[in-house]
Write a structure and sequence with these properties.
single chain; alpha+beta; Immunoglobulin-like; 8-stranded mixed beta sheet; 6-stranded mixed beta sheet; 9 helices; 19% helix; 27% strand
Length: 477
């Protein structure tokens, strides 16, 4: 029931798989046990102590949340996904999970996904196997600086050699590694994003620079042994670029979600190379050209060229739908009704909310393909403060309507009333020009917006309600 034909940021829970002789994932058998490990590090307490510029990264919690949605699209059940975030993502814990969780009970044909969001960097090569004399590493939550006789380096990091050896021991021949980090670049500090189509005012490079950091080229994912690798990787940036973190999440991870969910909606089966190209295009339209970073595929070429067949997103089975329902259930009951339970395409929708006390009202819809839109507030009704009583959206004096539109099927309408100011529209990701000005009547719900709902839900007087309507063709066949 999207009120306008706008582009959405999509998320999904639809089961999916990579099929065929060159496919990356196959459909799971009853005995198969796919595994996913999601690691996110945004806080580095050991590096903060004597840092002139904080190494901490914004939006990593949103990256983790987004990646959980992506694994759901890939058919992983929650019990098959393990998350290590901030303090839990120590080097020992990450190595342990890579040595057990992604290996034990995993067969040759079982898909395995490993994701990391945080800082990357380089350290001096210790075993002499790197032509550039530098190892690529990922920084864990307990990473610290160490001074040697020769220079300063880092300890408690996941080194490319170690990661390669861990990947090599995974029994699956279908391992996907996703890295939202980088290992070099030209910036070391946060910077203002001039192109603010995402609504993010600041970007932070996702690589850690320190005095004594060696130059080099290479990727953190490389095969530990000769021959075909059992994995393929998609990383956020080329050797000379830096990936970007924002308060709405990493550009790479946002682009990955956009590419995968769009393919699921369109019933397409993209290869990982095609996904890379889609992510690349997303980053290009989200940031000014001089700060653009280009995702890179490495590893087994047959896996990279394998098609990703996604079960279509339909009938309200996506993770955003489930998440909004769960969030609505946390609040005190809010009565939400619509003028009718079924709407033909083109018919105008009216939403009524019985407001039990003064507050701030947000109304969100999620259509049958799990596309979420903030209906209220909007460009024509920016003030979402409401008084006790019955509120109708739109009112007679509001210069907009809510026509039922494609896609057909069930549509969830959820309303949230908070006692403190909350404007989900301001946290939207799409519908802005390069200066950050909202240009669409209705904007899209972001992970930052659902996080804000969760925070508001902890208020004692938070209210929420929901209703489901159906959208049907204007003329029956």
């Amino acid at each position: 029931m999207s009120p306008l034909p706008i582009r959405h940021l999509r998320g999904a829970k639809a089961a999916s798989a990579l099929l065929g002789a060159l496919s990356f994932f196959g459909m799971h058998t009853a005995s198969a046990e796919p595994r996913a490990l999601i690691v996110g590090v945004g806080e580095y307490p050991n590096l903060v102590k004597d840092a002139k510029v904080s190494p901490n990264l914004p939006g990593i919690d949103l990256d983790v949340k987004t990646m959980q949605q992506i694994t759901a699209i890939m058919g992983f059940q929650p019990s098959q996904v393990r998350v290590l975030f901030n303090a839990d993502a120590t080097l020992d814990r990450v190595v342990h999970e890579l040595s057990t969780w992604t290996r034990d009970g995993v067969g040759q044909d079982d898909p395995v996904v490993i994701y990391f969001s945080g800082h990357g960097t380089r350290i001096p090569d210790k075993n002499g196997d790197e032509p550039d004399k530098a190892d690529e590493v990922l920084l864990m939550s307990d990473t610290g600086r160490v001074r040697t006789k020769e220079t300063v380096t880092l300890d408690r990091v996941l080194v490319d050699d170690q990661l390669g050896a861990l990947l090599d021991k995974i029994p699956s021949r279908r391992v996907l590694v996703l890295i939202d980090a980088c290992h070099s670049g030209t910036a070391t500090r946060a910077f203002d994003i001039m192109d603010q189509r995402l609504g993010a005012a600041e970007g932070v490079p996702k690589y850690y620079y320190y005095d004594g950091m060696p130059d080099g080229t290479g990727v953190v994912t490389k095969a530990a042994t000769d021959g075909a690798a059992n994995f393929v990787s998609l990383s956020a940036a080329q050797d000379t670029q830096y990936a970007i973190a924002t308060y709405l999440g990493g550009l790479f991870t946002l682009g990955l979600q956009d590419a995968i969910s769009r393919a699921a909606v369109a019933k397409e089966s993209p290869t990982l190379v095609q996904v890379r190209d889609q992510v690349d295009a997303y980053i290009a339209r989200s940031i000014e050209p001089e700060r653009r970073h280009n995702p890179m595929v490495a590893g087994d070429t047959a896996l990279a060229d394998g098609g990703i067949r996604l079960v279509p997103l339909e009938n309200g089975n996506g993770p955003l739908w489930a998440e909004l329902q769960a969030l609505a259930a946390k609040g005190r009951k809010l009565t939400v009704t619509t003028s009718r339970p079924v709407y033909k395409i083109g018919e105008e929708v009216e939403i009524s909310v019985e407001v039990p006390s003064d507050g701030f009202l947000n109304i969100v819809t999620i259509d049958s393909q799990d596309s979420a839109t903030v209906l209220f507030p909007n460009q024509y009704a920016a003030d979402n403060s409401v008084k006790l009583g019955s509120v109708r959206i739109p009112t007679a004096d509001m210069p907009f309507v809510l026509p039922a539109q494609e896609p057909q099927g069930p549509t969830l309408v959820a309303a949230f009333l908070s006692t403190t100011p909350l404007d989900l529209r301001a946290l939207g990701i799409e519908g802005r020009d390069a200066r950050g000005k909202l240009t669409q009547t209705f904007t899209n719900l972001s992970a930052a917006a659902t996080r804000a709902i969760g925070v508001a839900a902890r208020e004692e007087k938070f209210h929420a309600g929901q209703v489901t309507v159906s959208v049907v063709p204007a003329v029956k066949p």
